[in-house]
Amino acid sequence: MRDFEWLTGLYRHQRVETGPYKGRRPWIQYSNQFNETRFYVLHMDFLRLVRNRFLRSPSLQSNHWAIVRPTNGAFTVFLALQLCDKVDAYGFITEDHKKFSNYYFERGAKTHVVFYANHNYNQEMALWKTLHDKGIIHLYQGEGREPETTQAKAETIKRPNQAKAKTTKRPDQAKTKTTKRPDQAKTKTTKRLDQAKTKTTKRPNQAKTKNSTQL
């Protein structure tokens, strides 16, 4: 019932009137950017599917079964799998969770992870690992793994570019040399023809001068 009371205050932009959230302003939880045209409520059948098919906790058979349900993060992962081609999960619980803070936004903090009775954290931990191993999702499992992959990828991209630059440079140099030689050959050929023409023109004049003297 409290969810409906929350939604009523959210859509009316009013404080919650009754229930455990009485007096609260729901819209401030969305950084004052709430837009009712972009707000969707998940169908209850989808929530039941996730709980009963994938995360059916043994605690559902206990006396406090009414409060047992998957975490909001678990519902979000399965919603993403329905809508997205690729799902990267960051900040979800892993086997080495004791090394990190309770929440992903608590950088540098060493807060203790509390396993509340309404969620089965160990079950979700095992499920995320299984989905990751099968390639269904990519589960971020701590710092130190991603940078190595990124660096190797950068080196792979860098080497072909260097090889391409060298390959491109050699034809240009060869082209420059090839272009230069015909010009030199053309200059020499033109120069020789000019010299030959000058000599040919000069000999008839000399012959004419000698004939005139003899006469």
From TrEMBL:
Pathway: Protein modification; protein glycosylation. The keyword Glycoprotein applies. It is a single-pass type II membrane protein. Residues 142-215 are annotated as: Disordered. It is an enzyme of class 2 (transferase). Keywords: Disulfide bond, Glycoprotein, Glycosyltransferase, Golgi apparatus, Membrane, Signal-anchor, Transferase, Transmembrane, Transmembrane helix. It catalyses: a 3-O-[N-acetyl-alpha-D-galactosaminyl]-L-threonyl-[protein] + CMP-N-acetyl-beta-neuraminate = a 3-O-[N-acetyl-alpha-neuraminosyl-(2->6)-N-acetyl-alpha-D-galactosaminyl]-L-threonyl-[protein] + CMP + H(+); a 3-O-[N-acetyl-alpha-neuraminyl-(2->3)-beta-D-galactosyl-(1->3)-N-acetyl-alpha-D-galactosaminyl]-L-threonyl-[protein] + CMP-N-acetyl-beta-neuraminate = a 3-O-{alpha-Neu5Ac-(2->3)-beta-D-Gal-(1->3)-[alpha-Neu5Ac-(2->6)]-alpha-D-GalNAc}-L-threonyl-[protein] + CMP + H(+); a beta-D-galactosyl-(1->3)-N-acetyl-alpha-D-galactosaminyl derivative + CMP-N-acetyl-beta-neuraminate = a beta-D-galactosyl-(1->3)-[N-acetyl-alpha-neuraminyl-(2->6)]-N-acetyl-alpha-D-galactosaminyl derivative + CMP + H(+). GO terms for molecular function: alpha-N-acetylgalactosaminide alpha-2,6-sialyltransferase activity. The keyword Membrane applies. It comes from the Eukaryota. Residues 203-215 have a biased composition (Polar residues). Pfam families: Glyco_transf_29. GO terms for biological process: oligosaccharide biosynthetic process. InterPro entries: Glyco_trans_29, GT29-like_sf. GO terms for cellular component: Golgi membrane. Residues 169-197 have a biased composition (Basic and acidic residues). Its EC number is 2.4.3.3. This is alpha-N-acetylgalactosaminide alpha-2,6-sialyltransferase.
